[in-house]
Request: fold
Amino acid sequence: MPLPNISSKDLLARLDRIPVWPYSYWILITIGAGFFFAFFDIVSIGLALPVFVKQFHISLDMGIWAITSSLMGYILGSLLDSVLSDFFGRRLALILSILFFSLGSLLSATSPDIYWLIFWRFLIGMGIGAEIANVSTYISELSPARCRGRMNSLAISFGFMGFAFVPFIGFLIIPVFTWGWRLLFIIGGLAGFLILISRKFIPETIRWKINQNHLQEAEILLIQAEKIAQERCQKKFKKDLSDFKIQEPMFNNPANNPANNSANKTSSFLNTLLTPALLGRIALFSIIWLVYYIGNYGWLTLNTKLFSLEGFDLSDSILLVALSSLGFISGALIAIFLGDKIQRKYLLAVTALIWALCLSIISWAPYLSIILILGFIASASIALFIPQMYTYTTEIFPTACRATGVSITDGLGHLGGAFCGQIIFGVMALFPSHLNFSIAFSLMGITGLITGILLIFGPRMTKEKLLT
Reply:
């Protein structure tokens, strides 16, 4: 029996009225695993930096370009893959992102010198950039409004397991084996190919199908989601879905019929993206991400080297990073719990200020106990901030250009991460050498303060319907 004329408005309303995650949890695992190894790589390069600088007989300034190149690749990969995502679907984009990451990781392990490592790190960066931008878009579009923040936090929390566990792996192999840093890249590459295979079976998002005017396909996916949600509600919460299923959808109302709505067929991707309102949001969120990433990537990729400059040996420096990184687990759990309970921009602003305070105290009191305690809290703040900020960024763009909007703001923001080493070490050079550690961590703390202030100017989006 053919489906009746379908209203996109009613389909979106039905999706947003679902009170639970209406898909297999395998999707979260498959998507989250990509985040795990993306974050795995970010920590790996920071741990490997002091080692390959010695092995390749290069300066620290030269070694930092292995970090910079991956983040430059991040910007390009994020933009290209997100444009493909908006035109050809989220599923294809997620397959391509993990493919680039996996190839780049395996090839990085074979690097005979710093120049090849810089080249292959650029390819890894393309994969990570595409991955992060499209995962946030994908989960936000799959999720009903009332659980969007929690589901994004749950998926991204897998990534923070990478932040938490990789330093311990690095502690066991990098100081002991000359090839230890190469093994980390091999692990990431092989795991990436397994994730790629699993992603062949994930569904396209209902919102993207609706935006492309594939309404019958969207309703088929929605009916499947409603059935899963109904079973889940009845089994776990002893309630049915009658409170959010549309009883009289009015599918035959010409005003709601996309077949008669020429705007849905002729709307331009660029005209949607380049409206004054969206340009203002692109500017604000690009600045927020850029400032935050200077300090964030400074902590994630330079902390081992900075601890060494303060007098800790390589093993102790990695151990300090490892123990502090346990905070990522706590922060991820808090993000899942608070994901949709507090207005997002205020939660983010407070979290950024906590980060700023922790780094500022460490900068002038670099004692072992203080670094461990405040480093733990700083890591927890990252794990709380990142999933909520990605969710927030996806919420401010309409479906037609959501992936591209996220990639532009996050990509421009990653310029801060790409050049964090040059910025931090450049500022350090302006002061006496005995202040290097204090200046570096003070600068990272200042980025958190500015980030918290800028977030106050963002729109209120928590539990609001996504823009269509």
